[in-house]
């Protein structure tokens, strides 16, 4: 029976086929200003092709490391398993491709004063090598930066639909109390969890100082499009569960985006297959703008290409025109309330 003291904080990391990256991150936790006996790290290997548990446990780390192994079941299931296995009152979830500063854990804990029910969203900053990444990954970094700036404005309020699993901490009891991640969701499980945590009474706090650095090993445009498609599908499911939250309804794109882009998005809904070539053309124009140094135009084009594939996913989940009409009506009804 273990006699180790209960840690103040548990770090939960899901990993899949990224042994070098998770190893790098674990050693960065070894250099934390928070004493090693005050935290633990729980890694959940989500069915990596090469063994992860033995190489990680062979590392001579100063803190308690536990490695759970499961058959590939997706990030939501892996993170859920890690949070349930965690022993700390505060759980911090991050990704295996992140990097952290030495005071990272202390800064998160500082935002959880006694008696609070905070969900702390730490900033995600781009890795200094961001310039070497594909346009679509730099676009993600741009979106993260834009959200961080918006949430940093005095009086701005972080909400449940802002939750992301790259850098977030919360009370384990709150997580368990709302039922944890919905493991049926292949994407957007973080946003959906955030909505339930907010409804349960948690307060969301954005922290610029508890930041991570995010690089990326995603280089496939085709896989990026598939992710956009999946987000459209699963955001539709989230919107059904939370119809009163307009910010998660995928059909908001048809009404809230730049009017100049709406015809392209509408065309995708009307003829999803016939407009695939058009999506590629939009992305090629964005790449050309990027090469010319027109970053704003490049990001705008990337947003349109993403939105087109995203709405293909939403349309696929909605089914035929009857389903699309029902989902759009749900969004419009939410606008009136």
UniProtKB/TrEMBL annotation:
<feature type="domain" description="Glycosyltransferase 2-like">
    <location>
        <begin position="10"/>
        <end position="137"/>
    </location>
</feature>
<dbReference type="Pfam" id="PF00535">
    <property type="entry name" value="Glycos_transf_2"/>
</dbReference>
<keyword id="KW-0808">Transferase</keyword>
<dbReference type="InterPro" id="IPR001173">
    <property type="entry name" value="Glyco_trans_2-like"/>
</dbReference>
<protein>
    <submittedName>
        <fullName>Glycosyltransferase</fullName>
    </submittedName>
</protein>
<dbReference type="InterPro" id="IPR050834">
    <property type="entry name" value="Glycosyltransf_2"/>
</dbReference>
<dbReference type="GO" id="GO:0016740">
    <property type="term" value="F:transferase activity"/>
</dbReference>
<dbReference type="InterPro" id="IPR029044">
    <property type="entry name" value="Nucleotide-diphossugar_trans"/>
</dbReference>
